Amino acid sequence: MTLTLIALNFSHANHCMNLISAANATGCLPPSVYKVRDTPHAPAQLHRAVTLPSFKEPFAFQENTRLLAGTVMPVDQRPPNRLLQTLSAADFALVHPHLEIVELDRGKLLVEAGGELTYVYLPHSGIISSVVSLSEGQAVEVAMIGRDGIVGATEALCDAISLSDAAVVCQGRASVIAVEDFRAIAAESAAWRQLLARHEQSLLAQAQQSVACNAAHSVEERLSRWLLRARDLWDGETLPMTQEQLARMIGVQRNAISIVAHALQQAGVLSYSRGQIEIIDVEALRKSACECYHAVHAKQAHLFK
Length: 305
What we know:
Blueprint: H1 2-26, H2 61-64, H3 82-86, H4 89-95, E1 100-104, E2 109-111, E3 119-123, E4 127-133, E5 139-145, H5 153-157, E6 165-170, E7 172-178, H6 179-188, H7 190-216, H8 219-233, E8 238-239, H9 243-250, H10 254-266, E9 270-273, E10 276-279, H11 282-288, H12 291-303
Antiparallel strand pairs: 1-7, 2-6, 3-7, 4-5, 4-6, 8-10, 9-10
């Protein structure tokens, strides 16, 4: 029995190493992307480009978002969004009459790349992903937005045409402002314009770091970075995410996520089952992540101090 188990383990290890060799042979990124680290095992470093499914269901504001109509928000009771919380009382008074509250349903496409934006979104909870999709089906996330940000600000101040897909990956709630009202508020309030400029710098820093991360870091590091960022925005240690969704977020094959997640689960860092990922050891996950999580976190803290 012991010899059989050893033979099986050896066979599995060879299979995993063959996967890495195949990835190295066919991948379009430098060999350093496929580097081997001590923890988790080498198979966790599998990385190659992959064609992933796109969000197919369009987001129609009136039909697919549940407006919480009829509720009047007191001026002194601000939504739990960092930008709205940061405004002075006078500047929030400009914004308040134009705010409507909506539920963000998981999987909904708020706006498609090239589509016209009609509302700007200030999340209270949940996670919205800004995704760039390519003509052959590849897609990768360039920014993750939650209660610390706003979706569609730059587009609203220009021609209202979205540069990327914006999709809800974890359900939540948001305040929305019609694009016309948003422009009027920005024209009237210098403080609001300065706050939006800082936010756009924060988004740019996140996008730039994502480019560097996807080009230079292993799947383990990138997945750990993504989970930490999601944890910052999500209330609780359990994220409602499937392995296929995670693969889409960081632009890799699903089996790469499966190998890495299994290794992290074996190490006691997280657990996953039936579309739920629970972070068990946050400190270990931080050690597993690349420098990008800490770099973006530091830049955002500096911009909004």
